[in-house]
Amino acid sequence: MPDTTNASPMPMHNDKPFYGYHVDAIQEQYAQRAAPSVVSFFMERLTPGMSVLDCGCGPGTITQGIARAVAPGNVIGCDLEPGMVARAAALAEDADLPNLSFQVGNILDLPFEDNTFDAVVSCAVTEHLSEPVKAMSELGRVVKPGGIVGITRTDWSATLVSPPCDALTRFFDLFERGFHLQGGTMNGGKHLGGMLRDAGLTVVDLFPAFGSAHTPEAVDNMVGGWAEWIENLPLFDRIIEEGMVDRATLDAMCAEMREWAAQPGAFAATAGCRAIARKD
Ligand SMILES: C[S@@+](CC[C@H](N)C(=O)[O-])C[C@H]1O[C@@H](n2cnc3c(N)ncnc32)[C@H](O)[C@@H]1O
After folding, report:
1. Domain extent listing, the chain
2. Ligand 1 contact, 279 CB (< 6 A)
3. Predicted confidence band at 34 (pLDDT cuts at 50, 70, 90)?
4. Which fold has domain 12-278?
5. Distance between Cα 242 and ligand 1 center (Å)
6. Which numbered atom of ligand 1 lies nearest the CA of 56?
7. Does 204 have pLDDT greater than 70?
8. Residues 70-102 pLDDT 10s
């Protein structure tokens, strides 16, 4: 029987984390992400000596960039998935960042005192949650008065794809339906400002941003990465069990997506929103 509850902070499916961040191929993808490209809007507000929390840090490569920017200020990366925390600590071993540490922590119930950090950031995490406002309140709880909270959140209701690709359209739809099964959504970026206000924070900056790929290597990397999600994530096993699609169709979609990505001139972009909020 599929696990249809969302009671656990780490949604599981057949004893595996539903979102699949334990899978090596998925961790490798997130380890490519660097602070200057993903959180430049947050980094520009940091100064040396600030204490920072990166919540839902994944393999921690973004967190490393933040730790470099605020050294000697203390930076903690926390994540619900112990495998991600172990990967983050291992990747940081040779980085010579004594001000950086990683620990397990749930964004809905953070293991930190009130008013602990000068700044808090969370990238691509609240999409997974049925209670994103509760998570943002929790980020607000642990930041000091006058401190800032930076959030990125996808909104894949806006996607740009040229030339058209039926398999990509189907992928976006199925992925969103998979997120819905656990109460999350990939399409909530447009609501980020309202969520932060509901969490009791003051929004000081809010803007849309597209992540895109247009060089052959980047398109191959991005779309090939999505095909790896289809092939690896327990979320897609669950989607099959729910009768939304079968494995043969998913395999054919992966082949079509890879073929699409290999053609000259292929272009794909997906939207999101970024916000800075302040605790008054
Ligand atoms: C899409 S990855 C993003 C990783 C990194 N922040 C980045 O932008 O590259 C989402 C991360 O959020 C973590 N996560 C999901 N739910 C969480 C929760 N309730 N508390 C803390 N982390 C969570 C996952 O384990 C995963 O590492």
Report:
1. 12-278
2. no
3. confident
4. Rossmann fold (3.40.50)
5. 25
6. 22
7. yes
8. 999 999 999 999 989 999 999 999 999 999 999
